[in-house]
Amino acid sequence: HAQKVISAGEYQERRSRVLGKSLSLSYQQPIGMRRAAMQYMFDAAGNTFLDAYNNIMLVGHCHPHVTEAAARTSRRLNTNTRYYYDEILDYAEHLLSWFPDHLSQVYFVNSGSAATDLAIRMSRAHTGKNKMLCLDRGYHGNTQSGIEISPYKHHKDQEYPNAVVGPFPKKPANRDWDSWYGDLLENYRNLIQRNQNDLSGLIAEPIMGCGGQLPLPEGLLKALYTEIRNFGGVCISDEVQVGFGRLGQWKWGFEMHQVLPDMVVLGKPMGNGHPIGAVVTTREISESFAQGPEFFSSFGGNPVSCAIGKAVLEVVEAEGLQQQAANVGAYLIHEFEGLAANYSWIKEVRGSGLFLGIECLAGPKQNATELAAYLCNELRNAHILTGLDGPGNTVLKIKPPLVFNRANADQLVEETNNVMRKINQF
Ligand code: PMP
């Protein structure tokens, strides 16, 4: 039906009048979104966009099984954890069945940030120490304690009163792997040893999202977990971006690195757009935490959120979406590597399943940052949504809803190729 199309200028004027200043927009030509379904989004003018970017919509935008669960439950009951109700138990049991046995306790909150914050509190309660080891360029949340361990959002030379920041684990082009990795490990070991009287633990993403879709080097997490545990610290895996089967071969990123964390932080895809997050942990840590102030969240674990979370798990299982992520992801990597062979400014295609990054180098006329921005904006103009991140925003990020299929992959690769051909002609 006919809808009023509001101009970008009008939106901008209204936003700047009433919304806080620090909000940014995607693309040189921002989009006024109206509707979405599965891997597609529709703007106010009726254009269809292929969403190759939104990793929150794990099972697809507005998936009917999830929206039905939301509507059905919100019509019947919404309350909090101070009552008995089935939804929280059904969901907790289902969610924990996706984890190894030692991760047997779940705390529900309303965002990835709230989950990180809670994980920090728990680490402090369990160890009696305050600082967290984190990785340079990592991001873990927007609360005060989350931002303190998120170098991604820090300005240069800012201090870290509650964090110990380890080096960004990316090999520079001029180093050979073995010597670089040896130095990296030694650097981390020294940091851990120097700070062990203050460190409560380590938090890391198995593949760094904001760091530019960068998988941690093989062996790094295993080595760090050993060092941290040697002095009683806890190991936290931030699975906010990579969890729930997105990596294809693995349900959780920690499996990729063959480690078993003491705590897992969950968010984004967990509610397919509904604000829900969680900390999953061990009985021992849960017991230490219970010695401190009572934990209560007004919304965390409410029946509506739990029904939604459970519906998301059911769709992933019923539709075989983890396998689809593995298949379509492998196909995309293969196709993009084919492109990389033709265009010298693609440095690397990396990631796993439907969590991929294409790192750009300088092109014929543009530096790497300009080239990646051009690529992302031209794809947007071709009605495909992707994003940018990593040092200098040189990495094109691809992390679509897992219903993204082979035909979608072909469209993405073909349009990417079209933009790259244009770049060649500059
Ligand atoms: N951890 C990671 C790895 C994230 O990417 C994010 C969000 N970008 C968060 C935590 C925080 O999640 P939220 O925005 O839901 O608070």
UniProtKB/TrEMBL annotation:
Q: Which cofactor does it need?
A: pyridoxal 5'-phosphate
GO terms (molecular function) for this protein are: pyridoxal phosphate binding; transaminase activity
Keyword terms of this UniProt record: Aminotransferase, Pyridoxal phosphate, Transferase
This protein's superkingdom? Bacteria
Question: Which species is listed as the source?
Answer: Robiginitalea myxolifaciens
Mapped onto the parent protein, the portion here is: 322 to 747 of 747
The answer, when asked if Protease is one of the entry's keywords, is no
| Family listed | Belongs to the class-III pyridoxal-phosphate-dependent aminotransferase family.
Q: What is this protein called?
A: 4-aminobutyrate aminotransferase
